Amino acid sequence: MTSDGDGFPAPSALVEHARRFREQGSVPAAPRVAATVLLLRPAAPPLADRGGFEAYLIRRVAAMAFGGVYAFPGGGVDPSDSMAHVDWAGPPPAQWGTRLGLAPTAAQAVVCAAAREVFEEAGVLLAGPDADTVVGDVAGGDWEAARVALERREVGFADLLAQRGLTLRSDLLLPWSRWITPEFEPRRFDTYFFVARLPVGQRTRDVSGEADRTLWISPADACAAGELAMLPPTLVTLGQVAACRDLAGVIAAAATRDPATPVMPRLEDSGAGPPRFLLR
Q1: CB–CB of 276/254 below 8 Å?
Q2: In a domain, 1, yes or no
Q3: Does residue 265 fall inside a structural domain?
Q4: In the chain, pLDDT over 90 holds for what percent of residues?
């Protein structure tokens, strides 16, 4: 899916959802609060020498909601995220709340969900022994057993970190935007988007049962590659990040973003042309 300058082509399945919703006079489902993380890393030479960088994408399995499209690791806020008593580094929850437009406890839950989901779905842990360090490779068997236990909700994220004497590095998550699923979708999410640099010594792993393909790709190439099916939030975010010259530019841009005001794609289906998504 690519932008035509005035909007985004709307997949036929979504158009049918919207028409059925309108014809039946359905009531919009309440969106579930969620978090997603765009992982970034320096590109391999020679692109790295010119500030090039790559983004991590996963393709959701077809059987899932929004399946068959590329997205970033993420998912809904879990009740355990709201109740977590986690050792915390970075901006305090009250400061996160101001930035995200949420109460401090709700903001902490969103940040915890972002860190938990990127560990569950990509095997990347944004935590360290103290406020200034990050763990190295977490791909070993012991770590994988811990990740699986977390994914199965046999252990909470805060408990996992406490058992290993680790501090959540909330400062490694940079808030970027907020998107709400259109009203016609049966499953809706109010999703906070973050960007994060892949910690040195760590590597992504294809561990999520929710994905059938993963890849690292430059944001510009992802936007230009018409064969990568993406919904507007993913495509727009990649385009925004691609406009930055390097990873330092992404960090600088994140500081000026508005991650509290939601964006909700609106389907234009007037019959005067192909249906398309407009952003509002």
Answers
A1: no
A2: no
A3: yes
A4: 64
